[in-house]
Request: fold
Amino acid sequence: MEVIYWVLLATLLDGLVAFAGAFGLALKPKTLKKLLMFLVAFSAGALIGGAFFHLIAESLEGLPVDFAFLLVIAGFCLFFIMERFLYWHHCHEGKCKVHPFTYLILVGDGVHNFIDGLVIAASFLVSIPFGIVTTFLIIAHEIPQELGDFGILVYGGMEKKKALLYNFVSQLTCVVGGLAGVFLAMSFDPMPLLPFAAGGFIYIAMSDLVPELHKEKDNQKAVKHFALFLVGLAFMLAIKWVAGA
Reply:
């Protein structure tokens, strides 16, 4: 089917967005260090906004309210357990070169990208033009998020090149989601994945990223970080308005 090629092309393009983090490779270490906290603040807001404005809001249109929020809690709890497991294996001596939340951000982003692939597939099944518009909207949303994710991975202790590669691998789950959406469109319901992923995003933002922002002792810088947090929220809300327009 022609739609398969469109979905494959669209999801591969979305996968390449992961290399937006290459922008960080071009920066001097001191400059990148200054930007990291701003990227963390923006990403925290984007994760919260994505969870509530997109994933949860969308899931409530197709799932019972109690069931949807039960899945949000389930996602939150699973990420809690996963971080505890990673912490035990990587930081049990009190020193952690690479913090556990870096792996969690990759897992959470992988689930999110898989869902993006399903959305892209569904949009192309409606029509080719609608699929193209949806793809551009998703890519527009992904570019700043990938920059933020790259910053989080580096802030968590990963080498920049490794962070870029891992981010790309995580982004490629969009291709898997797109192909799954095409071949299983008639029998596979992706709706329960939305609140589940939202729970994971909420956990990462509130348990790992926001506490990092609280470590800033300079009130002026803290206000700037909070402003970037609000920008992340506003950006996700704006994307929702544009997509709904």
Q: What stands out?
A: Confidence is low (pLDDT under 50) at residues 88-94. Residues 2-23+67-214 form one domain.
